[in-house]
Specification:
The protein is α/β, with parallel strands linked by helices and 307 residues long. It has an eight-stranded mixed beta sheet. Helix 5 crosses helix 12 and helix 10 packs antiparallel against helix 12.
Length: 307
């Protein structure tokens, strides 16, 4: 596509030290070139030991930029600043866009001119679909509840989100590494009267985390960010009660696990329940530890250490 043409979409991918999964992400997008929607891809590298120049060079519709400020938010912001399309679509480099992802985004915006922000569905890509691990089963149900985030919490996860560029400029950039940047952006948009819409046909898949340690790092980040808002003694008491209720919550979730269409069979449901119990007890301990004098800021930043 000549640079003089204006694409319909700009797809923005933050990247850090993951050239193999970036290749898979770009392959899935390349397969959608014939769907009738023109798009460009901007890979915003965020400090890789070896920038993925060779990978990106293999995809003529993609270009590579470097964002030195740490964090996926600044990387996405860099891509948004240089994007040429009226619609910005964000996907993470370890995600695979399902067939029709590009068309679903473009089609929804075309059919709903009043809509400014949309988010889609996320499915877990199991290493062995016939025999998921405990973490794969758990994350299939609980890892990426984007419909819930959009409809209850009024934000779309930035790993599968699209927004009109003019609106993105109005709301402003994603925040930095010290906050949950997609949640913060969504709250700012909501405060301006913007409504985010869930689009199930806008589907991607992503591998589950490789280990329980990776899962805990994800929750450490969220817990650390949330604790930043805990200032007063009543806040601390509410936080402690929330932690205790979280530790007791797995039994309440049995109905959701038994009826979920994202896992099948008793084995997968048992594995999901077992992992859910383990991670919620971990979160309970972490939250109580912060009340007792832990460092929330350090907890929030620790997730990137192995990035």
């Amino acid at each position: 596509m000549p640079m003089t043409d204006t694409p319909a979409l700009s797809v923005i991918i933050p990247h850090l030290n993951a050239p193999e999964v970036l290749t898979r992400c770009l392959d899935a997008l390349a397969a959608q070139r014939g769907d009738g929607v023109s798009f460009e891809v901007i890979v915003a590298d965020n400090g890789s030991a070896v920038p993925p120049e060779a990978v990106v060079a293999g995809f003529p519709f993609a270009r590579l930029v470097v964002e030195p400020t740490p964090g996926p938010g600044p990387a996405r912001n860099h891509g948004a600043r240089i994007a040429r399309a009226p619609i910005l679509a964000f996907i993470d480099c370890d995600c695979i866009a399902a067939p029709g992802w590009i068309a679903a985004i473009a089609g929804h915006f075309a059919a709903h001119p009043e809509t400014g922000v949309i988010g889609g569905d996320v499915r877990i890509e199991c290493a062995d679909p016939g025999r998921p691990t405990a973490i794969e089963a758990y994350e299939s149900i609980y890892g990426y509840r984007f419909k819930l985030y959009i409809e209850r919490d009024h934000y779309a996860g930035a790993g599968n989100m699209a927004v009109r560029r003019a609106l993105f400029q109005q709301v402003g950039d994603f925040g930095g590494i010290d906050i949950a940047e997609d949640m913060d952006w969504g709250r700012r948009a909501t405060a301006m009267g913007v409504r985010t819409t869930y689009v199930p046909r806008m589907q991607i898949s992503t591998p589950a985390r490789d280990s329980f340690a990776q899962l805990t790092r994800k929750w450490d980040r969220h817990i650390g960010h949330d604790f930043a808002a805990v200032k007063s003694l009543p806040d601390r008491l509410r936080w402690a009660l929330r932690a205790l209720s979280l530790g007791l919550s797995p039994m309440v979730e049995t109905g959701r696990i038994l009826t979920s269409d994202r896992v099948s069979g008793l084995r997968e449901r048992w594995l999901a329940f077992r992992c859910l119990t383990r991670i919620r007890l971990y979160r309970c301990r972490r939250m109580l530890g912060l009340v007792a004098g832990g460092d929330g800021a350090a907890l929030a930043k620790g997730w990137r250490g192995n990035g």
